[in-house]
Amino acid sequence: MNALLKSKQEAAATRLDSASLPAAAGWSKAAREDALARVRSTGLPSRRDEYWKYTRPDALTQADATEADVFKSDEPLVFDSFDRLKVVFVDGVFSAELSDDLALEGIEIARLAEAADISWASELYGTLEAKGQSPVERPLAALNTALATDGVLIRCTKTPSKPVSLIYRRDSTTADAMLHHVVKVEAGASLTLLENGPGAARLNKCLEALVADGAEFHHVRAQGRDHARSAATHMFVELGRESVFKSFTLTVNGKLTRNECVIEFTGDDAIAHVAGAALGDGDFVHDDTVFVTHDAVNCESRQVFKKVLRNGATGVFQGKILVQPGAQKTDGYQKSQSLLLDGDSQFLAKPELEIYADDVACSHGSTSGAIDEDALFYLRARGIPEGIATDLMTLAFLAEAVEEVEDDALKGEITGRLEGWLLRHSRA
Amino acid sequence: MLEIKDLRVKLEEEDKQILKGVNLTVEAGKVHAIMGPNGSGKSTLSYVLSGKDGYEVTGGSATLDGDDLLDLDPEERAALGLFLAFQYPVEIPGVGNMTFLRTAVNSQRKARGEEAMSSTEFLKEIRAKAKELKIDAEMLKRPVNVGFSGGEKKRNEILQMAMLEPRMCILDETDSGLDVDAMKLVADGVNALRNEGRGFLVITHYQRLLDHIKPDVVHIMADGRIVKSGGPELALEVENNGYADILAEVA
Ligand SMILES: Nc1ncnc2c1ncn2[C@@H]1O[C@H](COP(=O)(O)OP(=O)(O)O)[C@@H](O)[C@H]1O
Ligand SMILES: [Mg+2]
């Protein structure tokens, strides 16, 4: 056995020593035990892993969460003005008191920690995550499947009247939370899922979603403001025939965030778009890692990731489009760009295409650049102060990602948050 | 109004002197034209006056109504009432024309301690002014200059000038690349702004534009200096004989 694997396995063993499967695992016990076995055999991510070349996993893999000050603000939280069904977690624990009544026409919501054996969920829990372990290992997701203590199971049978909104409040400076959600959008139904909040001092979150034939799953997430936290999140999404998945993530601040998204097309004529806009200042590390597998005909995947980095912030993008044999008429698009507002910040990108079908259109582009000085001068020559001119250009740079949010009101909300961040950071 | 005295400018990055002692005064209410061969320093003069990076002033001064321009940021110069219609207007993907112009108008107002223009008032004004310049509503919605034809870009410059109502307008080859109709629109736009309090410095190669915008004074610039000044007849002379005679005469 090679030394790297051995040390990773040892790290896993140490971490698992102090952990135990949740007592109330019940129906998920088998899936959790399988996941445990996966983590034991792959070990935990190491700095020397190719997949973790750009982002140090230490803070995510070490035994305990690093203590992190709680961010406080009097400002309303993102999505606060939206009519939605609120599901609130505090430091990774569901709060019935802060949450709405979980009953909503067209949707069934159960708490992972309490759910009786629900057959649709027991078929899914850990399944997509396990599939997503190949060809690249994602040990933190397997760890999550094994040990997650809370989360929700959402089955959407019709189109509910409002979005479901998962809110992750954080009160403790040391909480180490593991949340695992399972979503199933049944044929023809459409679900909008919102997520916001830091979650915990350290958050490991996993979401598995099955989007059935002709179904739609819209996902808008805001990870923001609370800078001291660290997070590793995974989304595993499987798409049926003619289904649609659209996901957008806004990330502002955060010492360490790794967002992995694993998408697999299993039915023909489906569409998946994942997008992200990230704004980082100072000791900010943000990593978007995306893996899209086309295993069906005539599907469209689109990745649009934009990052604005200043004062030594780091942005990472790893994106892969894998087109399996027979996945003809695939339309795969991938774009990752960063705007570096100074020479101290850095953007590391690894775009990849792997194509085993001949009738496909795939493209990828990754760029990293400074602000366009000619454009900046043009704006200033019209009387716009440098700070505002830079902000206008920053918003313009991010617009292509934000445009991926389909709902206009949500798009407006995201833009408002971006403007707020810029106002606080560039005029300071 | 605009007073340039013995202005000397070199490139910041290279040891290349471009302006070698420019003297020029534009009085309020007057239109001055600058003509001159390519590479003589006309655009450099307009950039240095408006505050573009990359140039180093090695001597002389430039003031607008007594305020020293050369010490100010570009946005401060603009707020004082200086406007440059660019020879090559810049495309800014993602920034909407309307947002851009409203931000510009209100930034200038704020800098001058004036009240912001309301969005209703702004919309009314811009629609009226765009109509005169035959700029359609669709163009206003697009990102700044993106996908605009050469002529549309130049008309957009004039629209910005009309909205910002500067006191001192510098037009750098705004007529280049325009067909006769477009040039007429641009000239009309400029003429509509002419008044006693406003000065113009019009850089051009062609008599054509000066037929429509009648200048009070014409200057010939060559190799970083104003080598000759005169009345409108000087522009005619250039049109008929080129620069060779004039340059030979002053050499
Ligand atoms: N940023 C620059 N870098 C290099 N050369 C420049 C730059 N700006 C101006 N020049 C040079 O300075 C001279 C004057 O240019 P310019 O002001 O554009 O002339 P004009 O507008 O009269 O045609 C030219 O020789 C030009 O090549
Ligand atoms: Mg020029």
Question: Overall pLDDT of chain A, averaged?
Answer: 94
Order of helices and strands of chain B: EEEHEEHEEHHHEHEHEHEEHH
Structural class category of chain A:
alpha/beta
How many separate structural domains of chain A? Answer: 1
3D shape of chain A: globular
How many alpha or pi helices of chain B? Answer: 10
The total beta strand count of chain A reads 19
Radius of gyration of chain A: 21 Å
User: What is the oligomeric state here?
Assistant: heterodimer
Ligands (ions, cofactors included): adenosine-5'-diphosphate, magnesium ion
What's a quick, concise take on this entry?
The complex is a heterodimer of chains A (428) and B (251). Chain A is an alpha/beta fold and 428 residues long.
Describe the structure.
The complex is a heterodimer of chains A (428) and B (251). By secondary structure, chain A is of the alpha/beta class. Chain A has helices spanning 3-17, 29-42, 58-61, 119-124, 127-131, 139-147, 373-381, 386-402, 408-426, and strands spanning 85-90, 93-94, 107-111, 152-156, 164-169, 176-185, 190-196, 202-211, 216-224, 230-239, 244-252, 256-265, 271-281, 285-294, 300-310, 314-323, 331-340, 346-355, 361-369. Chain A is built from 9 helices and 19 strands. In chain A, strands 2-1-5-7-9-11-13-15-17-19 form a 10-stranded mixed β-sheet, with helices on one face. The mean pLDDT of chain A is 94. With 251 residues, chain B is an alpha/beta fold. Chain B has a 6-stranded mixed β-sheet, sandwiched between helices. Chain B has a 4-stranded antiparallel β-sheet with strand order 2-1-4-5, with helices on one face. Chain B starts with a strand and ends with a helix. The relative contact order of chain B is 0.18. At the A-B interface, helix 7 and helix 8 of A face helix 2, strand 7, helix 3 and strand 8 of B. The structure holds adenosine-5'-diphosphate (ADP) and magnesium ion (MG). Magnesium ion is lined by residues 42-43, 87, 172-173 of chain B.
